Amino acid sequence: MEVKTRFAPSPTGNLHIGGVRTALYAYLIAKKNKGVFALRIEDTDRGRLVPGAVEDIVETLKWLGLNFDGEVILQSDRKKIYQEYAQKLLEQGAAYKGEGAVWFKTVKEGKTATFDLVGNRQIEFDNSTQDDFVILKSDGFPTYHLAHVVDDHLMQTNPVIRGAEWISSLPKHVMLFNTLGWEIPNYAHLPVILGPDKSKLSKRHGAKAVSEFRQDGFLAEAILNYMALLGWTPKNNREILSLNEMIKMFDLADVHLSNPVFDVTKLEWMNGEYIRKTQNSKLKTQILEYLKYLAGGAIPDHPTEGEVAKLTPLVKDRIKKLSDFIPLTDFIWEKCEYDMAVFEKLGIKNLGEILDKIIYTLEEMKQPWEGETFEKKFRGLADEVKISAKDMFQLLRVAVSGQSVTPPLFESIQILGEEETIKRVKAALSFLMA
Ligand code: GLU
Question: Which reaction is catalysed here (predicted)?
């Protein structure tokens, strides 16, 4: 039988980081089995709909590379279908009307048992604990219980992959499947993700919408990789895995029962690892796409593609997020802003005198400047003015950028060009003299 999985978010907000794991596991199982991965939007709770949420979910899944098969399925388009099944249950005597809503009459005797692929275990309930429940609300929309059973039966979903918060509703679903005479799918209930303080994951743990992580400069690959490991350890314990490797290795039988903990610092670390191992040309494209995304689709004047191409290899070891690129490099195309505190931190006396000599040395040096000569000249000048070579290069850095941290100095100067470099050192001198 063909494996069909689905991701079934409720459009009550932008796709949350926790939802990525559910979507990813469903995607992996479908791909691993050459099956189908569907997107079903559960929009039957009309009061909780948030405008733009569906668009965000679709766009974010696309960005993550979790491409779904077929069209987006909207439960609100299927209202009639649920009503027909509610009617059928009414006719069967398995349901009754109460104040405009349709209620399912639970069977109170015996036990309900289902098999769960997570933990390879049987989950059992005493039916006596189950109260009657609403399947169709007075507004004519189904509750989650009826919509889930009808849709996953008609869509032939197997396995049903969803969060463990649904386990308590399982007896309701099993009873509905049984009463409608349908086969019960296999379930895989994923352990609930917690924050470091072991409470349910929330904003205060740094968990937010995926689009916010995207704005912060996280890579889709790093997010997928990190989220995959929240509840799953691959057999060989590897930590860095591509989507294709995950497809090969993922198995619901290896998903833990214990609750994983979301740690935003670890996600940042992993993002940095991804940036470092990305080839320069690809990283350049990612940075440009990221800046365009931040600008709402417009291509900014700066950095140009050429500037990003030159700067990418210089900064890739120093950044953890794509957003770190700009503060580190924008002195190149922005006017540089000097700050007395940054000069004072150098701890160098006679700054004016030394800057004067630096300007003279730069102006005398044969153009185009060449790395080795440049270094030799300034080591010599450092000796002459009695400061260390390290201080000399740091002073140059501050003079040309206004910052104490930049990409490697000589490479940065090459991007700036001789003329601009001299202009900036002169500007630094006037700033200090003013
Ligand atoms: N709409 C439900 C939720 O967002 C989906 C549960 C399921 O996958 O069946 O929690």
Answer: tRNA(Glu) + L-glutamate + ATP = L-glutamyl-tRNA(Glu) + AMP + diphosphate
